[in-house]
Amino acid sequence: APLTHNNRSTEKIDVTFAIEYLSNFYNLHLDGTPMTKMKINNNFLEEKIQEMQQFFGLKVTGQLDSSTLELMHTPRCGVPDAQHFT
Amino acid sequence: TMPQRPVWNKRSLTYRIHNYTPDMKREDVDYAIQKAFQVWSDVTPLKFRRIHAGEADIVIRFAYRDHGDFNSFDGKDGILAHAFGPGSGIGGDAHFDEAETWSKSTQGRNLFLVAVHELGHSLGLGHSRDPNAIMYPNYRHFDLNTFHLSADDVRGIQSLYGGPGTHQPKPNPDGSGPAACDPNLTFDAVTTMGDKILFFKDRFFWWKLPESTAAGVSSIYSVWPTLPSGIQAAYEVKDRNQVFLFKDDKYWLISDLRLQPNPPKRIHSLGFPESVKKIDAAVFNPFLHKAYFFVDNQYWRYDVKRQLMDPTYPRLISKWFPGIKPKIDAAFYFKGHFYFFQGSNQVEYDVRSQRITKRLKSNSWFGC
Fold first, then answer.
1. pLDDT score at B228
2. Which of B:86-105 have CB within 8 Å of A?
3. What secondary structure letter does DSSP report for B130?
4. Contacts of residue B71 in chain A, CB cutoff 8 Å?
5. What's the Cα-to-Cα distance from A48 to each of B134, B164, B257, rounded to whole Å?
6. DSSP category for residue B240
7. Longest Cα separation, chain A
8. Which of A55, A79, A83 comes nearest B82 by C-beta?
9. How far from B10 is each of B7, B13, B48, B161, CA to CA, in Å?
10. Distance (Å, rounded) from C-alpha A13 to C-alpha A36?
11. Distance from CA of A83 to the nearest CA of B (A)
């Protein structure tokens, strides 16, 4: 049970991080849903992950796999890849 | 490039270093920023001048967290820096996250490399998908001794500003670039490429759709950075989407609009004798699937399928192309005709009936 709990907790941190990343750089809109509730439209999130994976030449799965997360954690420029920087 | 392609409408830009990071000596910051500007000025007509007071086009700042532009920094790592595209006010400004450890070496984040990237944004570039490009969004350390912009970076910036030492060339005379309507205009080489006709002249080429009088002009360097200027002959094998470009004793292949990365080949590998040092003009005959190469008063015929020079060549141009005298500057095939360029004149030659059908000025395609 503790292992499952830890896994879920890590997964939640990853998803929160990914949502923040995709909001910053791939124009992901949360439409006012609190990020903690994770009620974001899964299809839209998947699409944004795919967009990011395609941009970086990763395998396009739409899933937060390890290579995608690793790339998201790489230091980078703050200018979005997919929209105006206003 | 950025959406809507924002650019600076002047070629001389000012910059100001608003403050310094305590991580580096001031002179090292000055040097890194100056060198980063130089990377871009080397490949464009842009000039950058540092000012110490007053309003600069591009302001360099080091800042922590919230710093007044609604785009907070996030502490160490994560976002390292950001910059705004060309524009007034904050437009063009580049901000560096002071939470990073900035350096002139491989320790921490190299200021020069990040500055080259951010100044790319300041000039109007977006992010590149090419991991070799400095405009790739993620930080990567390059060898500083051998650092150079990638072809993608160069193509991007030159699509906005043109090549070094030039203004963005225009097809009409305005004192910059070649003038398409000059009655004495001659061409180095002409070829079709896909649905367009390309007219090569010195460092530039005009490109246009055959049915339209509107023409664009680009520097050769901006489109194919490794191709030399002064292309002397060119022809297209349309059904293979291949264009061959010739200069001196070398030739290059553009396949599906991309210049092939292999080094150029020697024309002698096509079967020319060593005495031939360059080709004046080339044209492809799609009926016979053969390429004609014009050298002084003679021409050779090359079998594209067999990849061999046809026997019994060279032949005299004036004997086998009645009415065409040497020497030929450029030639191309379009809709059943060869078009031969000789000085400021052009001849339309019917391939099937083997006779001249029209005499034109060389720039007749530009609707002058």
1. 83
2. 100
3. -
4. 78, 85
5. 24, 38, 31
6. G
7. 46
8. A79
9. 9, 7, 11, 10
10. 10
11. 8
B118 assigned to active site: yes
Closest to A76 in 3D by CA, of A13, A16, A24: A24
Identify all chain B residues contacting A71, using CB atoms and an 8 Å cutoff.
138
For residues B200 and B231, the answer to whether their CB atoms sit within 8 Å is yes
Residue B229 in contact with residue B213, Cβ under 8 Å? no
Per-residue pLDDT reduced to its tens digit, B108-136: 999 999 999 999 999 999 999 999 999 99
What does the block give as tokens for B153?
A: 């970076």
Q: What is the ipTM metric for this complex?
A: 0.84
pLDDT tens-digit map of B155-170: 899 888 887 755 444 4
Q: Regarding beta strands B330-334 and B258-259, do their DSSP bridges make them parallel or antiparallel, or are they unpaired?
A: unpaired
Determine contact, residues B355/B340, Cβ cutoff 8 Å: no
Cβ within 8 Å, pair A75-B77: yes
Nearest to A85 among B82, B129, B139 (CB): B82
CB contact under 8 A, B81 and A81: no
Q: Rounded to an integer, what distance in angstroms lies between the CA atom of residue B158 and that of residue B154? A: 6
Contact B137, B125 (CB under 8 A): no
Choose the catalytic residue: B98, B100, B118, B236. Answer: B118
DSSP H or E segment with residue B136: none
Q: Tens of pLDDT along A11-48?
A: 778 889 999 999 999 988 766 555 554 555 677 889 99
- Compare CB distances from B81 to A24, A55, A77 and report the shortest one's residue: A77
